[in-house]
Design a protein that fits this description.
With 128 residues, the chain is mostly helical. It has 4 helices and no strands. Helix 1 (2-9) crosses helix 2 and helix 2 (20-44) runs antiparallel to helix 3 (55-78).
Length: 128
């Protein structure tokens, strides 16, 4: 839950880097919360037959759109790629598969043009 909240604190931050842990824990928490909200929609009878989504699910999806894209862009930055690569999601199947690969690979070692490696401890300080 820490990583989910960390992403929400950076709601619309598209610069910097996000390590794998931050991205995948956000995705996991987002999926579980979406499932729980869909269950509430089903129990309350709020599901729209045309969209297949309930009112609460739709509101949650809209609210999570910007942070989901932002953490994806930061994750791509961590692998040394431009955030514009997130547009691969618009290509059916192959684009999504390519993005899953990019999101799953390890960080680019050291600093890159998008910032310091979030895995490395801060220099000049004690590691706690």
């Amino acid at each position: 839950m820490y990583w989910y909240l960390a992403v929400l604190q950076k709601y619309a931050v598209f610069n910097g880097r996000a390590r794998r842990k931050e991205y995948w824990y956000f995705i996991l928490c987002n999926f579980l919360l979406s499932f729980a909200i869909a269950f509430v929609d089903a129990m309350t009878g709020n599901i729209n037959a045309e969209t297949g989504m309930g009112m609460f699910s739709m509101v949650y999806a809209v609210l999570m759109l910007v942070p989901s894209i932002a953490v994806g862009v930061r994750r791509l930055h961590d692998t040394g790629r431009s955030g514009w690569w997130v547009l691969l999601a618009l290509i059916p199947v192959l684009g999504s598969l390519a993005l899953i690969y990019f999101f799953a690979i390890d960080s680019e070692r050291g600093d890159n043009q998008y910032g310091k490696n979030p895995k490395e401890p801060p220099s000049g300080g004690l590691i706690v």
